[in-house]
Design brief:
single chain, about 230 residues, alpha+beta, Jelly Rolls, Arc Repressor Mutant, subunit A, 2 domains, 4-stranded antiparallel sheet, 3-stranded antiparallel sheet, 7 strands, about 50% helix, about 15% strand
Length: about 230
């Protein structure tokens, strides 16, 4: 592959990630033309990861935030005994770690669940564009509020719902968010996470997760294809 072709592919991937984020932002209301152009012109760096690779490790000092162009990632914490709690999932069009522009030491890790491409934006440029374009600053702020709302719902889910309700809620969240990202076809979507991953998101064992999925299938609440 020629160097010019490779550069063209990288520019296309970066623009695709920014356009997906822009589409999500403008679903709430259009941005001014100047703000749209500034967002799409942000300097970017393409990063490719395989399955179950860390994008950020807990304790890292990061100088950039990432948009998901393709794939699926999660934020997670690992305890001293080696157990893991998944905190959230992120899909194409999401900015995964906007908070790191101000909180520079990561208090959680970010890991892929399938081959993933992210587009990294330097923190200085994120802060600059937010200050220069108030509409973008408000969009970034809104993103953090949505993240906080999802975190609150996850707290209720893990803390107060029974296991079947927890699993059903998480699967419905996937369905809604994948549909918003244009990844649902005929009511179905690919979910590239293992039963261990789902268990770590719901605070249960993998064995309990397996039984719960069997119950949901038996009640015809979900359908799976291998």
């Amino acid at each position: 592959m020629s160097r010019s072709r490779l550069i063209g592919m990288r520019m296309s991937e970066a623009l695709s990630a920014l356009e997906k984020y822009l589409a999500k932002v403008e679903a709430r209301g259009p941005l001014p033309d100047g703000a749209r152009a500034a967002l799409l012109a942000l300097p970017t760096r393409i990063k490719r990861f395989g399955t179950y690779q860390d994008i950020v490790r807990e304790g890292d000092r990061t100088g950039e935030s990432c948009f998901v162009e393709s794939g699926l990632v999660s934020r997670y914490r690992t305890l001293r005994n080696g157990t893991r709690q998944i905190l959230s999932f992120h899909m194409p069009g999401d900015m995964v770690d906007l908070q790191s522009a101000l909180v520079v030491v990561a208090d959680h890790g970010i890991r892929t669940h399938m081959p993933t491409i992210v587009v990294a934006i330097p923190h200085d440029d994120i802060l600059r564009i937010a200050a220069a374009h108030p509409a973008i600053g408000r969009a970034f702020w809104f993103d953090t509020l949505v993240d906080a709302a999802i975190f609150r719902e996850w707290t209720v889910n893990v803390g107060r719902r029974n296991t079947r309700e927890r699993a059903a809620h998480l699967l419905l969240e996937f369905a809604v968010r994948f549909e918003a990202a244009g990844l649902v076809r005929d009511g179905e979507f690919e979910l590239p996470v293992s039963q261990n991953d789902l268990a770590d998101a719901l605070g249960i064992t993998a064995v309990h997760m397996n039984r719960t999925l069997q119950w949901l299938r038996g009640e015809r609440l979900i359908r799976t294809h291998m």
